[in-house]
Amino acid sequence: MSKFNRTILWIFFLLVAGVQLFPLVWLINFSLVDANEFFSDKVLVWPEVLKWQNYINAWIDGNFVRYLFNTVLVSTVTIILTVGISLSMAYAFTRMTWKWNKFFFVIILLGIMIPIHATLLPNFTIFRSIGLTDSYWGLILPYTAVSVPFSTFILTGFMRSIPRAVEESAVMDGASIYRIVFQIILPLTKPAIVTVIVTTFLNVWNEFIMAYTFISDDSLKTLPFSVMNFAGQYSSDYGSQFAVMVLTSIPAIIIYVIFNEQITKGVTAGSVKG
Q1: Do 214 and 138 touch, CB atoms closer than 8 A?
Q2: Least CB-packed of 116, 213, 232, 245 within 10 Å?
């Protein structure tokens, strides 16, 4: 590639990066301005005085710590269940021979096409009748159910690239099926597992409609509710709302940046080697 073409390519990549990062820059910018400075014709506003009070309000008045704990708890349990179920299903679909293998694999993959909010009304009716509304399980169960199909797809594609000889030697040594799956296969599928963990985390971390429908107890609410704490009937504290959104986005950004390479490996390994 010539120097000119390489320069053009770099300029293009920088423009794309700028477009992708602009919403984050805009979010941080407006989290530091006074309420009177919001209504202007400028895309970005340089505040006369940086209003760090917005972040103090977000942390204290937004009940951020309690909501953060709830979100971390729901996300962690959902991820553990999703990884355990998806890994077991992927092993059954790729390593075990049984009559309805392909049929049930297709049925599971159909779940990828069902949006989580399409199940909102039936889930609410069922959970209310069995007492799961206003509980952590009222969020964990639907989040897990929606995450499993895509996670199974990722793990199945990756697991097909792992040689069977690894498991055959373990079987000869007398290893049980659970030891093979969770002590041998699990470490080998690390890139795919990381992909599953990050995608599940991002989906659960940002979800609001399901949580808003099922949770009314303030002690069980998740992070997106912090934004609602600063919304009034006639006016809203926009600066604090933007500060909440910045604080909420930081963990997701950090996790994605750290595991970006593993995510790429997890998504592409199955298609390249399979």
Answers
A1: yes
A2: 232
CA dist 141 and 74 (Å) reads: 10
pLDDT value of residue 178: 81
Which amino acid belongs to residue 214? F
The mean pLDDT of 101-114, rounded to a whole number, is: 88
Q: Which amino acid is at 153?
A: F
Coil, helix or strand for 231?
A: strand
**pTM of the entire structure?**
0.84
CA angle 103/107/109 to nearest 5° reads 115
Closest CA to 270 of 188, 159, 110, 151: 159
Phi/psi region, residue 46 (left: phi>0; alpha: psi -120 to 50; beta: rest), is beta
Query: What is the per-residue pLDDT across 147-192, written as a single tens digit (0 to 9) for each?
Result: 999 999 989 988 888 887 777 777 787 778 888 888 888 888 888 8
- Work out the widest C-alpha separation in the chain, in whole angstroms: 73
Question: What φ, ψ does residue 231 adopt, rounded to 5°?
Answer: -105, 120
CATH 3.40.50.300 matches 62-273: no
